[in-house]
Structure prediction request, 1146 residues.
Amino acid sequence: MATATLGTGGPTLQASERQMVLPTNLLTGIVLAAVGYYVGVQIGNGFGFNDGLNTGVLLGYTFGSVMFLVGVGFANYPLARLFGWPIAPQSAGDEYRGAWRFLNLSLDHKVIGIQYLVAMLMAMFFGGIGAMLIRTNLLSPDQLVVPPDKYLVLVSMHSVMMIFVASAAIVGPFGNFFVPYMIGTNRMAFPRLEALSFWLVPPAIVILLAAPLFGGFPTGWTGYAPLSEQAGQGFDSYIVGFALIGTALCVSGVNMLTTVISLRAPGMTWTRLPIFVWGVFSASILGTFAAPILASAVIMQGFDRSMNTSFFISSNGGSPYLWENLFWFFGHPEVYIFILPAFGIVMELIPHFARKPLWGYRTAVVGLLGVTLLSWFVWQHHLFVSGIAPALRPFYMFSTEMISIPTGIVFLVAFGTLWRAKISMTVPMLFCLGFLFNFLIGGLSGVFLSDVPSDVTLHGSYFSMAHFHFTIVGGEIFAIVAAIYYWFPKMTGRMLNMTLGKIHFWWMMIAFNLAFMPLFAAGILDMPRRVSTYAPSLQGLNDWVSFWAYLLFASMLLFAVNVIWSWFFNPKVAPADPWHVRSIEWTLPTPLPRRNFERIPTFTSGPYDYGNPSPRPAADLGSEPAPA
Amino acid sequence: MTGPTRTHALRLLIAWAVLSVVGVLLALQLRLPPGDQSQQSIDESGLLQLMTVISTPVFIGVVLFVLYSVVVFRQKRGALEDGPPSYGNFRVQVAWVAITAVIVLILAGIGIGELAGRANGTNFASSNQPSLATTGSVGTTEANALQIQVIAQQWYFTYRYPDYAGVESLHLMLPVNANVVIHVTSTDILHSWWAYELGVKADANPGVDNITYLTTLRTGSFTVRCAELCGIWHGNMVDTNGAVVSQADFATWVADLQKSSANVTLPPYSQYYFPSPRVKGT
Amino acid sequence: MFAVVVSGGTNRGTPARLIVLVLTIGVVAALLALFIGDFVVRGPESLTASPATVAQGNTPAQNAFVHLEVVGSVAAAITFPRPDDPHPTWVSYLPTTILKVPANSTVTMQIDQEDTPSGLRNPFWSQAFGIEGGTFHMTYFDDQGAPQQGDFSSIPDAATAAHTFAIPDLGVFVPLEGVNAAAPAGSMNVITFSFKTGKAGLYHWQCFVPCGSGTIYGNGGPMQTLGYMAGFLIVQ
Prediction:
């Protein structure tokens, strides 16, 4: 990997600019994390709270994470300001060359995008392994492949890992990488916050993966108290992991919002903003304001477990409803953090491959912002049978059903764009169309769940589980895969193999639908979620599901092979504009220069002006556009 | 392939209408659970079917449109032509939003009507007191509804009958054709009491009396499950021995239960039982 | 130039990359093995019921006998010591909680109950259900510390229960009286009862006394870990 020809294209940095304040890198980060963990455990256990030693683990994780960030280099800048040391104008990571810089702190949004992409794909792999173990256990209602206590740990690990992935897997890799290009800027508004939003993720994943070493936690991703308070030290992983991810979401959201609001190039008006940027923008609004609620709620759980407070313990004056409400007040905007950027990707890609302007652009923006607004008013539909005041239920039922209006707009925009278009059935387009089909099923099943009387039967059953897998896997993951096929040449300089891509699409589409469609039936036929055993009459159905789930996983392995082979072993450099589309990132050469733009471009038209009689350039780049 | 817009639209519309009629007729043949053992399950089956019927044309429309588009509006092989530069049609957009809004309003109207017309679902607090109807048929009117308390504990549901001196039972027996008020509470953590065939589900919270209503219509057994993750034996928290029985059988059964419970001292009936204070340490 | 691994159009680096790839796959596979192994490795050993030595009334086709011990902390076990247990302070059934019994037979259980009372949260469980004859035999100590014995269908005071032995799917619920404080040190209550097993299958069994001290409501830790207060009855 040392053969990268880096730093030859852009201007070289002065030696003094690369001066580092402290010699920090990933290794110092890991060493300091270990030291921090040890110190935290000692201090926590030294307090003497008789609490099953949760204080030690909580403080250990917290100190370890903070010290990891210090070791990676986040303290350099503040310390330099504090002590009047020379301040490095560029990141410490720019000193490194080759693959090593992807393992270190970098303030380059392109490096951070790649870091996010790799971290998310690896986390998704572990989550997928968890899903395979779950399906293996459900092959039979009365064979103990995974004992029931470990089964719950497994379900929890799978769910929390996938929530981590889903909440950052679009805004992280593609938002960080392409939003600066799309709006015509060389960097994000707050590059250090951008780097921080990434470097909070690896500690969160490592801490989560450490949970089984402490016995794991049996609560699923909802972490409902008081069950969570019965769990051992494994649950401390949930607390610190979600606190870190919540901080990352908030930090990333603030950065994205500021960047999009204040760093748009001349001519990049709000109505010329690519729809993908709008998707990221609306998700960032939700991330900024919803994630702090999660972070504070999990800290309250931490207090309950370590300091003997009773926020969620009814016998001591607390209330489990408090957790349910705090959690879902974050949790429902959270699911739109998953799906809004996915809408953005689908609406971005469809015009390019239909070679037609995005139909109803302003309506699409209204749709995205409408979902953003409405998502704050629906969270109690998760609590319809929990015993909430009955007078509240009609309101939440209505607001939940209202969300199908802005969501319907997304479909309308896709339809309008496809109508009389010139559609190229490329692999990214196939995944976008797959998204439309899967998300349609996910959305329609959501209506079944939104109505209170029908929700009484479906709530907490496999029906709701199938519903959110259709929206997240069939929706968001399909959009992510589409985005990877589409942007991979620009990000890595290599095309993915499109024949394998077509096989991957049909394989994944068929396996996904055949695996998850029967789960709607399982839910209607009386199978609750998160059970390690079930009615023997449902065994045939579960075996069918497991079979297709294995095939779904195999299709993702095929995808992984495609990615690894194309990235590292395919010598052919991708053309600068393999898709022949108008979006600005494709007018830049491949591989991308170190600096995005030598001169900040002036935008003279929108990104989707296909079929215009006198096609203007997408942007004035200040020089001859790269040859296609 | 590409003719005038009107031709495409007409083709699509006819295909959609034909397929939707077929689809709706098929959807009407469905008999969806939970069944007809109680008024609530009849309502829910009906509602699930109604939603299936409403969803079918939507589903068919979207799939048909996308399939038609990708088949008919294809880029020629090797060509790189642009489509027509249409940026939107205000009328179509307004019509689309209006139609989805109307569907949503209809759905919400049906749902709210269901909620308002019947005390269906859960209730946070209620002044319902036990009817103390210890003789004759119970639950024939709303006023003398049979009161049941579901006590959830890790990992079993037990049932108290406050109308019958608060006796407690391992399984739930209900008389047929009776109005039942179910009080769900928990002695430890969250559970969710789900009587599948009866179409009722209510979360069990410690320190909370969560109320749900039931009108039994047909005798037969039913399955009770836990629908809220509650720890290691969550999946095993199943009881298939509950049953709706005739009024006479119920009277016999409850009399037997009272007799066999003579040697156990239960705490006085209460809306909820606060679990013992938090145990920590040691 | 910005690109992740750009070799400038030659294959020069391929062998090196192949080695890195193989090493990476090796590391990931090792991590995966750890991850998967953590979930699928079976915990406690299983105990097969011995052929019955205690005949109970009408002898059915098959009889089986299971002897268990229940202790307040694993380290205090008398009959079945379990050295090197990771949780020596936990309350537990011993020697194991995975029990194998024959199908369609009568299983006689003898439980040596050595724990002190902790009390039932729901006094309903002080009754016994689903056992042969409706009663269990118990030797115990009265308030004066004198040994007593008798047949019971319930224990008189829910507050003196130490544990219960319950197989909900078979309808078997038996309260286990705690050892009276007046009893001499090292004494145990011996509870004997029989129940019928039905068709083959996997049945879970548990305790209804919130005895997992140190966790909220007493239902965490040992109550939710196989091998302590949670187990399976494998009917085969």
